[in-house]
Specification:
This protein is mostly helical. 77% of the residues lie in helices and 1% in strands. The longest helix is centred in the last third of the chain and has 46 residues.
């Protein structure tokens, strides 16, 4: 069964790869001669810019919160995760609305200083630099999580030794703490760049032409599935390169454990001015990445929201909830089966199948949609030919025009999310329970249903919720594969915002933000529990030694 699941996940990838050498009736050649070099160059600049800025924000905030003591640092530990609750395309809509020429910021400047348009310069948000800033504020929590965890796990003795050798706080950070945390930081950075490469809504609204937007336009405007698939290969190659770099970085990680050397270092108290600067540096991305869009959409909903809000939420919200619920339930069910098989029968074939099943999350939604669409159309065309020749009747395109294709794409992309959470939960279940259950005559299915699942209830709920919210926010795959006259909240927001009707889109945007806060709260609680467990584990040996 695990092999079958891995094959299903691999179908979109194989379909994309099979487009090599196929004829696109001149569309691919036209893309090569006109827009492809621009797509590649802009995508590279976007990835480099976002990577640099998110590293500065993520590493800086991670180090300050984990190593320094200043007012509000305790709140910042979880507040710095809040931008994860905002989909990037919503942040792009809100930032553009506030900072554009007719927005409140420039209007206030003109009214306060009696300026006209030619009297001042203001940066254009709908540009490459604007997209870099927006995505950086939205994605830095990935690096913040990785760097903060790495800084907390570093030995206090090493830092204290560096201080005794004459290194100040800054030199100790650059020469000791940062090099030790570099592998973890690179893992977070690779996630940021993969998210940047797959981003569609924000860069499209900022009028930035990347490979992700080019795939969608090639399919919708030119109607060439083969050319869109061939364009997806460029993006797939970049993702594969990042996965290889991440594997190399992960292989360089080393863990050492001792009782006293791994104690947590005391936080450095900051002076008034340094504490003030640290607070501004940490609160600024929260303000721009969460508070600003949330307050803006709340204001627009209250004063100029969609007049058909209840009708819209009842209709589009039902579509979104149905898709998200079914996709999350299937992902959890499949994840439980694969994780249990990996635990019960850890053969090479099962381990390989598990790795293949986890590849989808690293692949952009638009690429998966192209692969799913190509594979389904290939199968349906074959079936139609068979039915035409045998029965002189054609069933038509019965699968590609339904939500089944969309659910298949969701499973390919988000199965890795549930599988990762469930596998982590299984590692906390002692294998002694399995042995005791077998001595009591329990079979494999009964051990799973009567022993493992009751223990893993919170884990399964967490996995369900994470997939649910991811599906709720997914935009490119939904845009490409949704049935006709079937819209979700994300699609509705994109359509209204593209038509400059942000006031009407604010109601649906606020609903998605409210749903996105849930996994952030869960993640914050898990981080707090891990820190408490770490402190307890570190204090236990000292208490035991003093007792002895």
């Amino acid at each position: 069964m695990c092999v079958l699941i891995a094959c299903l996940v691999a179908i979109p990838l194989l379909q994309i790869i099979s487009s090599i050498g196929q004829s696109s009736d001149g569309t691919w050649q036209h893309l090569q001669e006109t827009v492809l070099p621009g797509y590649l160059w802009t995508t590279l600049l976007l990835a480099l810019g976002v990577g640099l800025l998110t590293t500065i924000l993520g590493v800086g905030t991670g180090w300050l919160v984990s190593n320094c003591r200043f007012p509000g640092s305790g709140v910042l530990e979880w507040a710095l995760l809040l931008p994860l609750a905002i989909p990037s395309y919503l942040l792009a809509y809100a930032t553009t609305d506030v900072l554009q020429f007719s927005g409140p910021v420039q209007t206030f400047l003109r009214a306060s200083f009696d300026w006209s348009r030619a009297d001042y310069w203001f940066p254009n948000v709908r540009s490459l630099s604007g997209a870099i800033a927006i995505l950086s504020v939205n994605l830095y929590p990935y690096i913040y999580l990785a760097s903060r965890t790495a800084f907390l796990e570093q030995s206090a003795c090493i830092r204290e030794m560096s201080r005794t050798l004459g290194l100040g706080a800054w030199k100790s950070f650059f020469r000791v703490s940062l090099p030790m945390a570099r592998p973890s930081i690179f893992i977070g950075l690779s996630l940021v760049i993969m998210e940047t490469l797959s981003e569609f809504g924000a860069v499209d609204y900022c009028a930035v032409d990347t490979l992700a937007t080019g795939i969608y336009r090639t399919w919708t405007s030119r109607g060439s599935l083969i050319a869109a698939s061939q364009l997806s290969l460029c993006l797939l190659g970049a993702v594969a390169f990042l996965i290889a770099l991440e594997s190399i970085s992960r292989a360089s990680l080393r863990f050492h454990s001792s009782d006293e050397s791994n104690r947590v270092a005391a936080r450095i108290p900051l002076s008034f001015f340094k504490a003030f600067a640290a607070s501004i540096f940490c609160w600024l991305p929260i303000l721009m990445g969460f508070l600003l869009p949330t307050l803006l959409f709340a204001h627009k909903t209250w004063f100029n929201g969609d007049k058909r809000a209840f009708e819209m939420l009842a209709d589009l919200g039902t579509h979104s909830l149905i898709l998200a619920t079914i996709a999350a339930a299937v992902a959890v069910g499949v994840g439980v089966h694969v994780a249990n098989a990996r635990r019960s029968h850890p053969t090479a074939l099962v381990r390989t199948s598990t790795r293949i099943s986890s590849l989808g999350y690293a692949i952009p939604g638009g690429v998966i949609a192209m692969g799913v669409l190509g594979a389904i159309l290939h199968i349906e065309n074959g079936l139609n030919d068979v039915f035409e020749s045998v029965f002189s009747w054609s069933p038509g395109f019965f699968f590609s025009g339904s939500i089944l294709a969309l659910l298949f794409a969701y499973q390919t992309r988000f199965l890795a999310v549930s599988l990762g959470v469930i596998q982590a939960g299984f590692t906390r279940v002692s294998t002694d329970l399995d042995a005791v259950s077998r001595t009591l005559g329990k079979s494999g299915i009964k051990i799973l249903t009567q022993v493992h699942l009751p223990i893993l209830k919170r884990t399964l709920l967490c996995a369900f919720m994470l997939v649910f919210v991811d599906v709720l926010k997914e935009l490119p795959a939904t845009l490409i594969l949704r049935p006709f006259n079937f819209e979700t909240l994300a699609v509705r927001i994109y359509q209204l915002a593209s038509d400059e009707r942000l006031d009407e889109a604010s109601t649906a945007a606020l609903a998605i933000i409210a749903a996105g806060i849930i996994p952030v709260i869960v993640l914050s609680r898990l981080m707090s529990q891990d820190c408490m467990n770490q402190s307890q584990n570190q204090s236990s040996p000292r208490r035991q030694s003093s007792h002895d």
